[in-house]
Amino acid sequence: MTPKTPAFSSRLGFILAAAGSAVGVGNIWGFPTQAASNGGGAFLLVYLIMIAVLAYPMLVAELTIGRMRQRNSVEALRALSDKPFWRSFGALSGIVGLIALSLILSFYAIVSGWLLAYMLAAIAEIAGLVALAEWLVAFTVERNLVMMALFMLITVHVIRSGVTDGIERWSRRLMPVLFVLLIAMVIYILTLPGATEGLRMYLQPDFSQITNPDLVISAMGQAFFSLSIGVCSMMTYGAYLSRDENLPRTAGWVAMLDTSVAFLAGLLILPAMFAAQKLGVIIYDDAGVLLSADTLVFSVLPAMFDSMGSAGLWVAFAFFTLMVIAAITSSISMLEAPVNALREELGQSRSRMAWVVGFAISAISAVIIYNFAALFGAVITLTTVYIQPLLALVFGLLLTWILRQQLLLKALQEGAPLMERTLFWKIWPWYVKFICPVLILLVIWRG
């Protein structure tokens, strides 16, 4: 007997969970770093355009695939056609997507473990446990293994509880806390000397930079990756969405919340960088290139916190708590997709599959930790630069080229009976069919 597909209990629960899936370390760390490296306000403007012209249409596509069948991503892609070749191809695409997602979580758990370590280090210092704090911030194999395992245990715990009692319940708790912490941190950082300079860089675009090809491609890639497109997470969440919901509108709420977090993160990080510079921390070299771009969160900002004295420990704790919350809301969606697929395809219990998949991903993470120099960057590049955009391209083409158009319209009319008359229906299918593939290929080529 096929296990019953779980579901979110409300629209708000879905929106917070899906936005939480999209809102991750990439928003709070990646987006501001990209903005600081690519012209500040000019990057922000182009990024917002790319969210509208690329990320949002593809988000609707993946949610549509998931809700049509209301099953795991492998079965959802398999069911797009009744022809044996396309059924097999769809299922294979779903399997590759779940493998890629598991690999992404394997390095994401390592990075999230670092964030968890820095959060606990602030607590340790406040408590006077200096030796423990030093161990937590030291880059060692032991520290990385312990913190990765602890983070994965938290993620497995949420997934074992199910969709309503686990994912939705914790998303309802964590997302409001994330917004409150983020806004509070922004308000505090903007009061620091030097913050105004960073704010000006972020909000005043240099229009001469907007046509810079590197900036445009970087903004396109950031918009694409920020919404977790191409690795079955959103497809899985789409399967849990009620058929009474308007898909384009609901996807719009998810994209808006995700973009809001990225925007607020820019209001936090860029002013914080210039506040750090005011305190003597070097953030740009003589050529104007951002230093420590990849380790900004673990170098520049902690240096700023240290310069604040005892108050800096509390600010560091609040900041890294914010980062950990963002990491958890994303990691639970990454683990949920393969767990639910195995649960449905093999007829196993959720709890057992959560432990099996969680252990397997932790084992991969351990291999990466022991071979960090050789594997960490390679896994990131393979999954996010190549596999993820290629799979998003495949998903969009399967939906718009293989699925019959009347079935696509019927899927969108659930929750929106007048869909056929809307401007969205007149534009979106053809846009995903022809324009999005070209844009995605540009991202891949640039990568």
Automatic annotation (TrEMBL):
PROSITE patterns: NA_NEUROTRAN_SYMP_3 (PS50267)
Pfam family, one: SNF
Highest taxon above the source species: Bacteria
First-listed, main subcellular location of the protein, grouped into a coarse class: membrane
GO cellular component, one term: membrane
Keyword Transport attributed: yes
Keywords: Membrane, Transmembrane, Transmembrane helix, Transport
Membrane topology of this protein: Multi-pass membrane protein
CDD domains xref list: SLC6sbd_Tyt1-Like
Signal peptide range: none
Transmembrane segments: 12-31, 43-65, 85-110, 116-138, 175-195, 215-240, 252-275, 311-332, 353-380, 386-403, 423-445
Location within or outside the cell: Membrane
Protein name (database record): Transporter
Native species: Pseudidiomarina salinarum
